[in-house]
Specification:
- It is globular, with a radius of gyration of 23 Å.
- It is built from eleven helices and 15 strands.
- It has three domains: about 150 residues, Quinone Oxidoreductase, Chain A, domain 1 (Alpha-Beta Complex); about 100 residues, 3-Layer(aba) Sandwich (Rossmann fold); about 30 residues, no CATH class.
- The chain is an alpha/beta fold.
- Bound molecules: NADP nicotinamide-adenine-dinucleotide phosphate.
- The site of NADP nicotinamide-adenine-dinucleotide phosphate has 20 residues, from helix 11.
Length: about 325
């Protein structure tokens, strides 16, 4: 039975009796010391339910009472709503392998919200295809972080807000990146480096593509180094309370921001002149560099060196960048 695109795995799904043991909030030790709070957007919104092992297999209640398929792997207990208005059951769900931008969280506690109950009755404004795991808010710790994840590491304590899926022993949160670039070659490089999607803005509308890729929700953060029309398209692609970070204007045009757009979606536009921290706030400058180095050493980021030139080739190197041929970092090797 096909599961993810490109991955034909057989999986075993069984139900187990009994209820999910209620886990005291105390086990999570309250919220003090939390490393990071995930806005754990449902993966299904972005990726067509790829993370939903049970929706991939599309269990019927009948299937739930029997072993389906075979490949032994780690499982975790999850609450399942298999039929609206009926009691929830606890199922054993196969742990999916982690993608580079994802974080596996051991859920310590999950809040029970009225909205969960409504969702399981089919009365909530958002309808979830059956079967689904309810659960909208959780605390826990990081079991495993994908290679491209930089904000948290194994052992960090986290809290998260989800649409569904948190009422389970494990939850996979994601830091998804949609890359925008001006050629197919650059798009595929971004893909290799961990972006889940890429948009070639030379060929297609960034705004329209992002709309499609996010089910019209928009993205939470844009980091823009291009300016001009790309900036405007990106501004329109932001979700409610999104942020756009102005980093540079490689395209040559400094855009203006229509203030009404900021107001309509509670958007923030911020500038980032990183190098200026050297003079304004050296500890921040220094700690940012240290963090980047330690991420490199730990293999959590792998900067891409697109081209290396000799000192005598400095003009070619400059042309390489201005002609939009560069990818990643362009370096002149001097000694
Ligand atoms: N604020 C800060 O702290 C900070 C720090 C570093 C850099 N910056 C700024 O960020 C911008 C990017 O710098 P970078 O060193 O990272 O460059 P880069 O991304 O390596 O190269 C520039 C890229 O911009 C795109 N581009 C779009 N229109 C272009 C045009 N008309 N001419 C040339 N390139 C164009 C090209 O990619 P596509 O072909 O994919 O469009 C090109 O490969 C610059 O404006 C720089 O000053 C700011």
């Amino acid at each position: 039975m096909p599961l993810d695109s490109g991955r034909q795995e057989a999986r075993r799904v069984q139900t187990s009796g009994g209820a999910l043991a209620p886990d005291a909030m105390a086990r999570a030790g309250g919220l003090a010391g939390l490393r990071w709070c995930f806005e754990a957007r449902s993966a299904s919104r972005w990726m067509g339910c790829r993370r939903d092992a049970f929706s991939q297999i599309h269990l019927s209640p009948l299937a739930l009472s029997s072993t389906i398929l075979l490949h032994s792997q780690r499982h975790y207990r999850a609450t399942l709503c298999t039929e609206l208005t009926k009691p929830l059951i606890i199922g054993n769900i196969p742990s999916a392998s982690l993608q580079p931008y994802e974080v596996r969280i051991r859920v310590h506690c999950c809040g029970v919200n009225f909205a969960d109950i409504l969702a399981c009755q089919g009365l909530y404004q958002e309808k979830h295809p059956l079967p689904f795991t309810p659960g909208m808010e959780f605390s826990g710790d990081v079991m495993e972080a994908g290679k491209a994840v930089t904000r948290v590491k194994k052992g960090d304590r986290v809290i998260g807000v989800a649409n569904t899926k948190a009422l389970a022993e494990e939850y996979i949160a994601d830091q998804k990146v949609i890359a925008g670039a001006g050629s197919e070659k650059k798009c595929s490089l971004a893909f290799q480096k961990g972006a889940i999607q890429s948009v070639n803005y030379s060929e297609t509308s960034l705004r329209e593509e992002v709309k499609k890729l996010t089910d019209a929700q928009g993205v939470n953060v844009v980091i823009d180094t291009i300016g001009g029309d790309i900036f405007k398209e990106a501004l329109h692609s932001l979700a409610w309370e999104g942020r756009i970070v102005v980093v540079g204007f490689a395209g040559g045009t400094i855009p203006s921001i229509p203030a009404n757009l900021l107001l309509l979606k509670n958007i923030s536009a911020l500038g980032l002149y990183w190098g200026r921290y050297r003079d304004q706030d050296f500890p921040v400058f220094s700690s940012a560099l240290s963090s980047a180095l330690s991420y490199c050493q730990a293999g959590r980021i792998q900067p891409h060196i697109g081209a290396v030139f000799k000192l005598e080739e400095v003009n070619e190197a400059f042309a390489h960048v201005t002609q939009r041929k560069s990818t990643g970092k362009v370096i002149i090797s001097i000694s």
